[in-house]
Amino acid sequence: MTFPKIELHVHLEGAVPPATLLEIARRNDQPLPADTVEGVRELYEFTDFAKFVKVWILTTNCLRTAADFRQIVVDYAAVAAEQGAVYLEAIFSPGERVQRGVAWEDLFEGYTDGIAEARDRHGVIVRLTPDLYRGMAAELAEDVARWSVRYGDRGIVGLGLGGDERASSALDYRRAFQIARDGGLAVVPHAGESAGAESVREILTLDPDRLRHGIRAVEDPSVLRELVDRGLVLDVCPTSNLRTRSVPSLAEHPLPALLAAGVRCTVNTDDPAMFNTDIAQEHRIAADLGLSARAAYEAGLAGAACDDKTRSELTVKIRDIG
Questions:
Q1: What's the mean pLDDT when you consider all of the chain?
Q2: How far is the CA of 155 from the CAs of 63, 108, 125, 148, 306, in angstroms?
Q3: Which of 16, 25, 31, 66 could bridge to 110 as Cys pair (CB 3.0-4.6 Å)?
Q4: What's the gap between Cα 120 and its chain centre?
C-alpha cells in the first residue's frame, strides 16, 4: 500500500509539462523561447537560482486565461493523485500575470474552479496559497492580498512570498501579510533557499505560520533553535535545492541536520516539470536522508493551512496504517 502524501509546496506554473506548456502557448499565441518539447527541456537546465527565476518568467507568461489556470490545477492533481497525494497546497503567482494584462477575476476564478474539479475528478483536496514576489511594488502586493482574502471561501488559505531573496527585504510586504492575516489567511513565505540563515531570521519577524524551504537555517544555531521553539514546519524540496544550486549535492542536503535538531519537515516537488521530478521521487530521496513517509505526512498535518474539518479528514486517512 502506498502511504498517503501531503504536499504543501508546489508552484502550479512550474508543474506544467513541456508539451502542455507548448500547447497552451500556441493556443494563446504566446511564443516561448523554445518551440519544441526538447527545447523547453533544455531551457530547464539551470546554472543557479537567478537563471531559474529568469526561465520561470519566460516560460510561464504564456498562461493567460481562466481555462489555462483551471487546467493546470486539474492536471497536476491527476499526477499527484496517482502517486498517493491526498492533499495539496499549491502556489500560483498573480502579480506577474496581472502586470501582463491578465484580469484578476480570470486568475482567481480559474484556479478556484480547478480546486472543485480536481476533487470531483481525482479525489484530491487542493487548497491555494498565492505568492507575492520579492521586488514587487508594495501596492500590488496589497492588491494580491485583498484578492486572496476575497476568495478565502473558495479555497485560498494562505499568502506566500517567493523570488530571489536578495532582490528585496521581506519586510517590504509587512502590510500585505497583515491584510492576509486579518482576512483569515496563513502567512507562508519562502526563506533560507537562495540566501542564508539571515533570510530566515528576517522572515521570523513577520511571525510566519510555516516556512517554504528554510533549509539554510542550519547555518546559524540560534535561528535553528528558534524554528524548533516555535514549532514551525518547513517545506523541504530536495531536488529543487539541487537543481537551483542551493545545495551542492543531495549528500550534503541539510535535511538530516534539520531533523536531528527537531525541525518538522514536509516533502515537496516545488516546480516538478521544471526540475524533472515528482512527489514519489522526492519521498524516495527524503527517505534516504532520514525522513519517513509517516513523519512527512504528520508534519504536513501540522503545517497545513486548512480548516479543522479538512485536517480531521486527513488525520483519518492514516489512523489505521501501521
A1: 95
A2: 21, 10, 10, 9, 9
A3: 66
A4: 22
Query: 304: helix, coil or strand?
Result: coil
C-alpha cell at 153: 471561501
Instruction: Report the C-alpha gap between 164 and 135 in whole angstroms.
Output: 9
| Dihedral angle sign, alpha carbons of residues 82, 83, 84, 85 | negative
Contact present, 183 and 206 (Cβ < 8 Å): no
Q: How many CB atoms lie within 10 A of CB 26?
A: 13
Q: How far is CA 234 from the centre of its chain?
A: 11
Helix/strand/coil for 240: helix
Interval 108-128 mean pLDDT = 97
**CA angle, residues 153, 115, 266, in degrees to nearest 5:** 95
Q: Kindly report, residue by residue over 18-66, the tens digit of the pLDDT.
A: 999 999 999 999 999 889 999 999 989 888 888 888 888 888 899 999 9
Report helix, strand or coil for 269: coil
pLDDT-derived band at 1 (thresholds 50, 70, 90) equals low
Catalytic residue among 89, 96, 165, 193: 193
C-alpha grid cell, residue 74? 486539474
- CB count within 10 Å of CB 248 equals 10
Strands 85-91 and 5-11: parallel
Considering the entire predicted model, what is its pTM? 0.96
For this structure, is 193 an active site residue? yes
